[in-house]
Design brief:
The complex is a heterodimer of chains A (about 325) and B (about 270).
Chain A (H helix, E strand, L loop, with lengths): L1 H33 L2 E3 L5 E5 L2 H5 L4 H32 L3 H12 L6 H11 L5 H17 L4 H10 L18 H26 L3 H8 L4 H12 L1 H16 L3 H6 L7 H11 L3 H50 L1
Helix pairs in contact in A: 3-8, 3-11, 8-11, 9-10, 11-14, 13-14
Chain B lengths: L4 H24 L23 H8 L5 H34 L3 H15 L2 H14 L6 H25 L4 H8 L4 H30 L2 H6 L7 H6 L8 H33 L1
Helix pairs in contact in B: 1-11, 2-11, 3-6, 3-8, 4-6, 6-8, 7-8
The chains are: A mainly alpha (about 325), B mainly alpha (about 270).
């Protein structure tokens, strides 16, 4: 009987296991092995093991691109969470019938093709278009505000790349083919993926806690920040991962809207793999990306486990206390 | 109501932000000037609207033939990938649900990891496999790639459905004399069907929309709808036709969802 069950397990498991081993695990190993080879001029992989590929990653080009990818991923994640939190809150507080409707409305833009939506943005952001006019005003306003900041802060912003200075004499930078366009359209693309997990968490949130906080004198925003946000923190962690990870691997949006200045790791991988046929370099960059994605995932898993343990401990302490009190009475 | 006013304002603004590009996708399908992609001429005069791009699509005009070919290739790939990944995903979910042990923890890791990795990594590593095996990229490599990322989504959807499944129903079937095959096909599979269908729909949408993975494994000359559109960045003659076709796809999806909602409602009313 036991042996038959074992056989049944293998029969049911084999199709998917074999497929994923062959087309997911094995390719990953091949990719890893390619990073320990050099490349040949005609686009092949050189014979013999070497570390030249890994050493080549220190090329000043690559660290700058990696840094830009990480910085933009943080920026996009920040904006997505900032806008998604009030959205999730507002949807969860709607009356029941509207709630499903509005939650559906958030996902509806996904019924059109992703590339077509990015293309629509590309057309809308055209230098003759109305969005360019809005952007020019925004750049002027930002410049004026930066003028009030102390010199050291301005230098730091320019150095980190958070605010790019507009070269003197130019009227205003175009929004198309700039980092701003990439951030804008990335936020547009990933915002629904941030709203959904937050909304799921907000739906389970007990809003009477907010009433209680307000009855005790908390201002609305204070209650939102101190009661609601910690209450949906599981959702926040999911939302951060849902935005941050695909953003680290982003390549279509920078390719179509970023121009030559906003090359991310994803673009570099594509360039190396398809255009200039440097397979080992593409593999090494991909390996680097895989590891940098694993860091936030591992952190989130560790944080979740710690939360669980803490909740359990708190529950146990509470039980002990009650027992002791019961004993005293 | 005052206490949610600020959040509702943000929600309204975000919905507007999400829908403006969709409005433009529809509008660009009626634009007369396909080169400048502006609704006005140099003097700011409004140029009117046209249905010529729709006429081109419906009459299969030569200028849109490669666009339509890429669209039908996408449908074909998505259909096949959905079928295969539904079978593989369902068996994967059954195995993960029924058994525990070392084999299943390896299996689970293999099913779960593609979900958390950026798409581009699946694309590049499959390309490396095809390079190492000296396989010519084309239709079959695209299909293999699509099945690979769809399996995990189907498996997770069906697994969620299995968690609510009452195993006592299967016991009852066995007690009534059904063998494992009969019990599976006559009892368990029909009850799992909504999960399989939901997973299949997800797989179809992901497959028909995928550009990242496909652009690594499509080889020269084979284009699905998304890779065809993204290749138009450099030479965009038929842009309005792309937007017209997308509008038709959007309308088709809306109609499908509407009809299926109506059918479900009708069924529920009949049952009640």
């Amino acid at each position: 009987m036991k042996r038959r069950s074992r056989l049944a397990e293998w029969i049911v498991t084999t199709p998917s296991l074999a497929w994923l081993l062959l087309f997911f695990a094995v390719p990953a190993l091949i990719l890893l092995s390619f990073t320990f080879h050099g490349h040949t001029v005609n686009g092949g992989v050189a014979e013999g093991w070497s570390l030249t590929t890994w050493r080549a990653l220190a090329d000043p080009d690559y660290p700058a691109i990696v840094w830009r990818t990480i910085r933009l991923s943080f920026e996009v994640t920040f904006w997505c969470i900032l806008f998604a939190l009030p959205c999730a809150y507002a949807i969860a507080r709607l009356p029941g019938r509207f709630r499903a409707l509005v939650a559906g409305a958030v996902m509806l833009p996904f019924w059109t093709s992703f590339v077509v939506r990015v293309f629509a943005w590309k057309t809308m952001l055209h230098p003759d278009g109305w969005l360019q006019t809005c952007y020019a005003v925004f750049v002027r306003a930002r410049e004026w505000m930066c003028g009030w900041l102390p010199e050291s802060v301005r230098e730091f912003l320019a150095w980190s790349g958070l605010v790019q200075a507009v070269p003197a004499g130019q009227s205003a930078a175009t929004i198309l083919d700039s980092e701003t366009a990439v951030v804008l359209v990335s936020v547009y693309t990933f915002l629904p993926f941030a709203i959904m997990p937050l909304y799921t968490a907000a739906e389970k949130f007990d809003f009477s806690l907010m009433e209680a906080a307000r009855d005790l004198g908390a201002k609305s925003f204070y209650a939102f920040r101190k009661i609601f946000v910690p209450g949906v923190k599981q959702g926040v962690v999911s939302a951060v991962l849902m935005v941050f990870i695909p953003m680290m691997g982003s390549y279509v949006i920078p390719q179509m809207l970023g121009g030559t200045d906003c090359v991310l790791v994803g673009n570099k991988i594509f360039m190396r793999a398809i255009q200039n046929r440097n397979i080992p370099h593409a593999s090494a960059l991909a390996t680097l990306m895989a590891f940098s994605v694993l860091v936030p995932i591992a952190l989130a898993a560790w944080w979740r486990r710690r939360q669980d343990l803490r909740d359990k401990k708190r529950l146990a302490d509470e039980t002990d206390r009650r027992m002791a009190m019961g004993g005293a009475a | 109501m005052k206490k949610t006013f600020f959040a509702q304002t943000v929600l309204g603004a975000v919905l507007l932000f999400l829908y403006v590009p969709i409005v433009f996708v529809v509008a660009y399908g009626f634009i007369p000037n396909g080169i400048s992609m502006q609704f006005t001429d140099a003097d700011g005069e409004f140029l009117g609207l046209t249905t010529k791009w729709y006429r081109q699509i419906f009459t299969d005009a030569p200028s849109v033939r490669s666009l339509l070919a890429s669209f039908w290739l996408s449908v074909e790939v998505a259909g096949l990938a959905t079928g295969i990944s539904c079978v593989l995903g369902t068996t994967a979910a059954l195995a993960l649900h029924k058994w525990r042990g070392r084999l299943q923890s390896v299996h689970h890791a293999l099913v779960y990891t593609p979900l958390i990795m950026p798409d581009i990594l699946i694309g590049i590593s499959l390309l490396m496999l095809f390079v190492a095996c000296r396989v010519q990229c084309g239709f079959w490599t695209i299909l293999i790639a699509h099945v690979t990322f769809c399996v995990s989504y189907v498996a997770m959807t069906v697994l969620a459905r299995l968690q609510d499944f009452d195993d006592a129903v299967l016991e009852a079937a066995y007690d009534l004399g059904a063998g494992p095959m009969l019990a599976f096909f006559k009892v368990q599979l029909p009850m799992l069907m909504p999960g399989v269908v939901a997973g299949g729909l997800l797989a179809f949408t992901l497959s028909i929309d995928d550009v990242v993975i496909t652009s690594f494994v499509n080889g020269a000359g084979t284009n699905t709808f998304p890779t065809y559109v993204s290749s138009m960045v450099k030479h965009s003659k038929n842009l309005p036709a792309v937007f017209a076709l997308s509008t038709l796809m959007l309308a088709g999806t809306c109609a499908l969802v509407g009809v299926s909602k109506a059918l479900v409602n009708m069924r529920q009313r009949k049952m009640a």
